[in-house]
Amino acid sequence: MGEDEGRSAPERVPIEKVDDYIWKIPQYKEAMHVSGMIFANQALLEKMQTDRTLWQCANVAQLPGIYKHSITLPDGHEGYGFPIGGVAATDYTEGVISPGGVGYDINCGVRLLASNLTEQDIHSHLPALAETIFHNIPSGLGSRRKDLTISNSDLDRLTVEGVNFLIERGLGWAEDAENCEEQGCMINANPDMVSNTAKSRGLTQIGTLGSGNHFLEIQKVDKIFNSKTAKTFGITHEGQVMVMIHCGSRGYGHQVCSDYLRVMEHAVKKYNITVSDRELACAPGTSLEAHNYYQAMACAVNYAFVNRQAIMHWVRQSFQQVLKQDPEKLGLKLVYDVAHNIAKIENHDVDGKTKKVWVHRKGATRAFPSGHQDVPANYRSEGQPVLIPGSMGTSSWVLVGNQKAMDLTFGSTAHGAGRLLSRSAAKRKYWGGEIKTRLEKSGIVVRAASPTVLAEEADQAYKNVDVVANVSDQVGIATKVARLVPLSVIKG
Amino acid sequence: MSGKQFKGKFEFLEHTADVYVRVYGVSLCEAYENAALAMFETMTKTGKIAQMDEEVITVEAGDLCALLYNWLEALLVNSETKGMLYSKFQITDWTKTTDTIKITAHIWGEKFQPEKHVQKVAVKAVTYHRMIVIPEKEENAVLEFILDI
After folding, report:
1. A200 pLDDT above the threshold of 60
2. Mean pLDDT of all residues in chain A?
């Protein structure tokens, strides 16, 4: 037993080994429409067995209209309703859509920038860079940029227009949009489906990092595993300076989820759907409730794209400010921006037939293969970039989507390290100052709004992200391109 | 996270990813008040929040769990949209009808000031995950819930 001693799943969840990296939860309950499929090595699986991850995977298998399997990825851990690191695809008309399958932080995601610089170019400037970025990008409680004030109508427009809203106003480059999932703008966004409460939470938080596991890192390329694909992504050499931004849709998205959880609770009764967990509340794919949620969710997805776009713009400005070079020279091109919490309408092959489905990715990264029309044209020969952030101070990964993902995981792979220690256990073990000192001893420059968050986010509190990337690579759902390591960490 | 000053009011339980809280109260009213205090203690040190401004909020729900969810969410929304932190909560009315429970509460706090208030971690959302409301257990009301952070 681990951290959750005495508080693990309400029942023993049976597991069958398929191979070293694939495990199956048989349909051990009548209510399960499909089996569960876990992608993990033995150690990751054992960790999942200490909390409710597998039980939640089995609950998701009970959603009406679910296809093939309820999927848990190598970073899977206990969430709300769905496990985090979970994927479920349900039939577009016969199935359901569940806000719990997306989560509270809608389009929490990652954006990666590639510079023309190498580590030596910025080494002496690193403290100034970290300080400038920390100053320019609001993070932590109640922080905001006073020069980015938006009106209510601006907010509605940006949630419809996505990143182009900012690009047209000079916050970004024209080509930025192409290198985002959904080109940085999900269609179907309709702000009329978003409550005023969500809007009022979103109004003051646009362009803010937030706190918790969200971060911004200056990184360098540590090792390239696939040089052809890396080069296509703009990753050219080891030592190359990169910037990774990890955040989401802030209070706007959290409120959209919460509001529609209430709507879905009514829907469950109205349409006579049985769910085994209140957080799995859902509505039939063809219902008004489902479509209203999808339109509201799309607004939150776009909010998050815009949020990361604003932050990226200020990162570029910060580099210019400190290094006094023009942007062309610095590079800082957007490699990709990918969502980790999202529901999509996609077509997938199910038993030899193409089916239109609602794909829920909750703590999962889309991982489309080469040739797929939704992969940006300039990357289509290789496949979609997959960005997996590590925990604070450890490596992060760039992978590339593969056909295997279409066969096994509805075009998805893992999204991160996944926690190992509870936040309180991490704080008992470490304290913020100690973490900062240790990271700085290893040459990493740290700026954080809250020492508490530093201790809670200690790298030892997470599973090893290298193991997670390895399982994805071995199964072949997304394969290794490059490993990145931090030079500087900026946290809320 | 929980100091001695909160003994008997609430404690933080082990949970891998998020904040898991158990709250006590001699009545349900008191337990709901303490739940609010626990949420703000997650975000900052509530002892440093002056009880300067008073507000009145009303929350309604169909059952006790939904009431806890809606109550904490209403406070979270108030805090975020007004830039406020709260440290005193008094539920002055608790009315139960056949379909709903409605509470009215007076809350006290002040504007968030980064130089005065310690930043712990921002709460994203209240969840129903592992939520328990036990109205009376050895003459105590007990609540358990998880905050998504």
Report:
1. yes
2. 92
User: Are B129 and A3 inside 8 Å of each other by CB?
Assistant: no
Whether residue B25 is predicted with pLDDT greater than 90 in this model: the reply is yes
Question: Can you give the residue ranges of every domain in chain A?
Answer: 16-104+343-384
Nearest to B1 among A3, A105, A427 (CB): A427
**In contact, A382 and A399? CB cutoff 8 Å:** no
pLDDT tens, A58-110? 999 999 999 999 999 999 999 999 999 999 999 999 999 999 999 999 999 99
CB atoms A142 and B149 under 8 Å: no
Active site residue A415: yes
User: 3-state SS of chain A: helix, strand, coil percent to 5?
Assistant: 40, 25, 35
Kindly list the residues from chain B whose CB atom is less than 8 angstroms away from the CB atom of residue A212: 121-122, 124, 149
Q: Is the pLDDT of residue A216 over 60?
A: yes
Of A77, A251, A278, the CB nearest to B16: A77
* CATH number for the domain running over B10-148: 3.55.10.10
Share of chain A above pLDDT 70, in %: 96
Q: What ipTM score was computed for the predicted complex, to two decimals?
A: 0.88
Please name which of B127, B131, B133 lies closest in space to residue B148, comparing C-alpha atoms.
B127
Q: Report the SS3 class of residue A477.
A: coil
CA of B114 to nearest chain A CA: how many angstroms apart?
Answer: 8
Instruction: Find the closest chain A residue to B112 by CA distance.
Output: A142
CA A474 → CA A385, A468, B50, distances in Å? 17, 10, 56
How many contacts (CB atoms, under 8 Å) link A and B? 119
Of residues A75, A49, A24, the one with CA closest to residue A478: A75
Cα–Cα dist A47/A43, whole Å: 6
DSSP annotation string for A319-368: HHHHH---HHHH--EEEEEEESEEEEEEEEEETTEEEEEEEEEES-EE--
Identify the pLDDT of residue B120. Answer: 86
pLDDT in tens, A426-455: 777 777 777 788 888 888 998 887 777 777
Residues forming a β-bridge with A31: none
Lowest mean pLDDT among A153-157, A192-196, A351-355, B12-16: B12-16
- In chain B, residues with a C-beta closer than 8 Å to the C-beta of A458 are none
